[in-house]
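Q: Sequence in, structure out?
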Amino acid sequence: MPLTTGPTARADTSVSRPAMWLLVVDLSDSFSDYWGPLADALGVELRRTTPAEASAASTGATAVVLAAGGVERDLPQSIPALALPNGTPVFAIGAVTSHRTAARAVAAGAADYFALPGDRDALHAALEAAVARRRSALDRAALAHLEAQSHAFREIIGESPALKQALNRAARVLPHADATVLITGETGTGKELLARAVHYGGPRAAAPFVELNCAALPPQLLESEIFGHERGAFTDAKSAKPGLLEVAHGGTLFLDEVDRLTAELQGKLLRAIELKAARRLGATATRTFDVRIVAATNADLGVAVREGRFREDLYYRLRVVTLSLPPLRERGEDVIRLADFFLAKFSTQYSLPHPAITKDVRAALTAQPWPGNVRELRNTVERVILLSPPGTLDLAELNGPGTIRPARSGAIPFPARLADIQRAAARAMLQESGGNHSEAARRLGISRSRLSRLLKGGPDVGDDPDPD
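A: Exactly. Output:
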């Protein structure tokens, strides 16, 4: 469920520019003392290598200098043999002032030929221009990547500290293509949208984003969906089918409701993640894949581990980075921002006037606990704008059928253990306070921290009489 689309929320993102360096490939030891001062003057690092190692060493180089003083005749053969990456400029350097030598070097693939010491200034100017072009390209790439990250988070509306904290954590993991991410949060908080932001804001954005709801298929079909199968692997396997780990190669596999995997599938998934390889059902060959795993759950996996329903080793493998999305009731004024966004969206969609959020509507929106979170709010706003008189919002419709609230009758159990009565009273007061923890604590005459312990079912160790 998406949080929604819009430009409100932002995460802090930054992209650092890679180091720039000049690679000198030594065909001879000519002009050895010159390269260090030249690199310093250009403001780049200096690296030196041999022709045999030039191909591997040149990746990422700003420019390549082929030092061939005394062996200029070897340039036509040596330049192609370097096997440099496309776009890397190579400058041939010799001691012979000869138009024929220069022409042969350029024909072999050099950007230019310079004879030292006479062409020293010209070489410096050519390298300076190459450095400027490389710096400009890196800056454009950095800005494009920063824009991609920023755009990913534009899909998420909200200004609450709780949401911003989650987005800031997500921004730090965006550039790291292999980091596994676990997204937690209640139903309807926007876990899938955040997973998409992690994918499309990172280096895997051009590759597939593949999603799978682990609760949507029975275990036998789920295994085939994840790992694939060969023809004849089971009764209905009429043809071979790649698994989603293969389909998502280079990109991201999003496993929603990962807590619903069976124990057997949990073990197979763990092994696949560790080895970056898996076998299709009915196959003997292992296939490798390069995939970032993003998992999501609305369950407490820590509790599931303690109860033996989820593998501890898989739990720790998935939660390398955990991003927790807050429920809507803990996001303060975000409910108004979201409601206004949805009002604009549905007003346009249904060709209706955009109604204003009055004081009464605002109070009603903020008082509700929204157990379905953003999904519930979205559907509620759509219903209200369709059923209210054009240009208005009917409070009766806002609080009408389809609004989910915990039952009030019988909310306080009795007779029962004191701890159960206290917990039920805390929950009832939180509901009465519209999900506002501070207000509920104030009405109960306890601190917010004690209220939190009661709601979680933890030990009531007592508290000061004054609420936070």
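The radius of gyration is 31 Å.
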